[in-house]
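Re: weekly structure request thread

Next one in the queue (316 aa):
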Amino acid sequence: MEWGPLTREDARPMAELWAAMEAEDRNGMIYGVDDVAEHLSSQLIDLAEGTLAARDGDRIVAFGYLPARQSADGLHMVHLTGGVHPAYRRRGLGRRVIEWSVQAAPGLSEKAFPGVPLELQLDVFDGHPGLTALVEEAGFAAVRSFARMERSLSGDLPASGSPDGVSIATWSPELDDGARQVRNEAFRDHWGSVQHTPESWRALISGSRNFRPESSFVALAGDRAVGVLITHFFEARQGERQAWIQIIATLREWRGKGVASALIGHALAAFRDQGYESAGLGVDAHNPTGAVSVYSRAGLEITKRSTTYALKIKPA
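Done, posted below.
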């Protein structure tokens, strides 16, 4: 087994690894070659110091990916993404990836945000007791629960009317910065969220290859953006053609007035017209805005749960 950093030439073997893990785990997490290539060229990743891969010949069988965040407000939350090929599990590869992340994260964090406290995070989907035991043994503690919610687009859809004084517009370049500002303001009180800079928004959201402008919408009160729904589509994911709601946000003063429900109803109808078979999103199970209830009323149901684990680390 040879260990070393990932390179931009690793998009194909990494996509093959994601496919093998998804075939075993059924977590809904699979990325094609182009998706992986986008991640490997992200402005937030230091490939030499922030990635690790185990190679068995030409095959990548385990990896760790530690991007910096685009901003940090008193705490830099570095999120580890990683995995091990099902045929190579229970050989200590996952343990090595986690140990590497604990050692590498302080230096990466200090380079990005000098002197800012660091918290290393990772997600564990339900049904993986071995991984849960491994991360707890490494000192991580459960801090938050998340859910994947999905619904079919067949049958009846929720009403798509808008509250008085609010109109729903399809995303356009002219609305993009207003959409970003709504997301930033709405997520200020959301656990684990950090502000999107114009650069990170374009790179990760509206400039991503997965972004679907025709399936993304902005709620307007006059000319002011007060809500936003951003949709991504991942071509590599198997099964139904699913529209993934990457972001849904409403300004605080407009919450409880039906803006989010209007956006969802409008989007679901548009998704079906555009040939999607289902819709999905991820949600903080402890979201204080009552988001889970809003999504449930729109017919979305929880299909998968995960837990975020965190480890506070002193700066390097």
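The CA atoms of residues 68 and 98 lie 16 Å apart. The longest strand covers residues 301-313.
Next request, please.
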